[in-house]
Structures are given as structure tokens and as C-alpha cells.
Specification:
Helix content: 25-40%
CATH architecture of the largest domain: Sandwich
Number of strands: 6
Distance between the termini: 49 Å
Number of domains: 2
Structural class: alpha+beta
Strand order of the largest sheet: 1-2-5
Radius of gyration: 23 Å
Number of helices: 2
């Protein structure tokens, strides 16, 4: 009976090691990275808003092409009177996935239509930023 228990423990230990190996492989394929690691691969520059369109340039610093590039487009609202802000903050955050890939060492011209458009108001202004929140490196 004791030998059956040892065999069960060994089988369980081997199963744990196999599961850990699979988890490591998955983590390496779709690992979580910090903002600096993302910026080392893909940067956003020249962000500007023209009417209801956000334009920017994305630069791929990697030697591999990037697909499934996901962006966080934040429209922060700054009140004219920050000491006494209103109760209706129109700021919002949009997420967007690029429809195309970015070639290795290449650039991508982002043209993002703001839908629905940001409201036109006189009690403050919007500041729009674009941040990379994810991507897939092809051939990694």
C-alpha cells in the first residue's frame, strides 16, 4: 500500500512539472510586459487631433512585424476651473485595434475617427493621448 502511495505522489509530481512547463511556454508566448518593454518595441509619436480624427505615427523598433496592435486612446477632460469642477465630466477612454500590421522596423500612420465625436464645450478642453496596450510579434 505504501508503494502505491509513492507511485501516486510521483505521478502527481510529474504532472505538476509538466503543467508548470506548459504554463511557462504559454507565459513566454503571451507574456505580460511593463510599459518600458512595450516602448522598446513600439512607440507612438506626433499625436494630434484634427476635428474628430486622431492622427499619430507608430514606430516599430523590433526586427519582427507586429500584428494585433491594441491602443488606448484617452480623451482626458481638463476643466477651465479645476478648483471648482463641474459634475459632468465628458472625458472617456476608447480602445482600438489596428486593422493592419506594422512591418519590422517600419511605421504606421494612425488615423482614428472619434465615434461618437467629443462634445463641444466651453467649460474646459480635451487632451488626447495614445498608448500601446498590446501587440503580437510575429516570428518571436
Amino acid at each position: 500500500m505504501a508503494s502505491v502511495g509513492r507511485v501516486q505522489v510521483r505521478v502527481f509530481a510529474v504532472a505538476l512539472l509538466v503543467a508548470a512547463g506548459v504554463a511557462v511556454a504559454w507565459a513566454q508566448k503571451g507574456r505580460v510586459t511593463n510599459p518600458q518593454e512595450i516602448a522598446d518595441v513600439l512607440t507612438v509619436r506626433d499625436v494630434r487631433v484634427e476635428g474628430d480624427t486622431v492622427r499619430a505615427t507608430l514606430v516599430n523598433h523590433a526586427p519582427r512585424r507586429l500584428t494585433d496592435v491594441r491602443l488606448l486612446i484617452r480623451h482626458s477632460w481638463l476643466w477651465n476651473n479645476e478648483r471648482n469642477p463641474g459634475s459632468d465630466n465628458p472625458g472617456r477612454t476608447d480602445t482600438y485595434t489596428l486593422p493592419d500590421e506594422i512591418p519590422a522596423g517600419g511605421t504606421y500612420s494612425l488615423v482614428y475617427k472619434i465615434v461618437p465625436p467629443l462634445p463641444r464645450r466651453s467649460d474646459g478642453r480635451f487632451v488626447t493621448t495614445v498608448e500601446v496596450i498590446g501587440f503580437t510579434e510575429v516570428g518571436f
